[in-house]
Design goal:
Layout: H1 2-10, E1 31-35, H2 42-47, E2 71-75, H3 76-83, E3 87-90, E4 96-99, H4 127-142, H5 150-153, H6 160-166, H7 170-182
Antiparallel strand pairs: 1-2, 3-4
Helix pairs in contact: 6-7
Length: 188
């Protein structure tokens, strides 16, 4: 049901724009419904109330993690890079795609397809979840490890970047946090 709703809504890879020529005959080889917030972390999802952003739950016990509001249709290889936080979508910068690693698909700077962005609708991917994924990608790649470990970095329910950005002297605090995490790495 999850895949079917995402396929019906998007119909193509919303990252690259690649259309599925076989969609009319219901063949979706090479296209996958990607969870924005990972299904493997459903317990963390429930403990921290992420389900509050899902408005189209099917029943009372539905956690919402398998809602199309927590999904994007992507080509398989793109999906793997998304899950690895190699790139993300920033809903606060016009839905621009930012690559944090090599960009073999030439997606850096592109814009997420509007077909999946009805953030206030019952079907669209939620901005709050895209924002969460983007922040996790930034944090994962600041350490240079390429893997997020949000469960261990911050207390449950915390939003370190949100706290910094909404607090006093946000720019100075963010610079200090970046400097401490990058440990003097030079990009020259």
């Amino acid at each position: 049901f999850f895949r079917a709703r995402v396929r019906e809504r998007d119909g193509k890879c919303v990252i690259t724009g690649t259309e599925n020529a076989n969609a009319p005959i219901n063949i979706w080889r090479g296209f996958e419904a990607a969870h924005i917030f990972p299904l493997s972390s459903e317990e963390y999802w429930m403990q921290n109330g992420f389900s509050r952003w899902i408005t189209n739950r099917m029943e009372e016990r539905d956690t919402g993690i398998n809602s199309c509001q927590n999904a994007l249709l992507m080509q398989s290889t793109i999906h793997q890079n998304f899950d690895g936080f190699d790139f993300s979508v920033n809903p606060d910068d016009g839905y621009k795609i930012t690559c944090f690693d090599k960009d073999p698909f030439k997606i850096d700077g592109r814009i997420l397809d509007p077909i999946c962005r009805e953030s206030n609708g019952e079907e669209g991917a939620r901005d709050e979840l895209l924002r969460w994924h983007f922040r996790q990608a930034v944090l994962a790649n600041m350490r240079g490890a390429g893997e997020p470990s949000f469960e261990m970095d911050f207390p449950p329910g915390s939003d370190m970047m949100g706290d910094i950005l909404s607090g006093p002297q946000a720019a100075k605090r963010m610079e200090a946090e970046l400097f401490s995490r990058l440990n003097g790495v030079s990009f020259a």
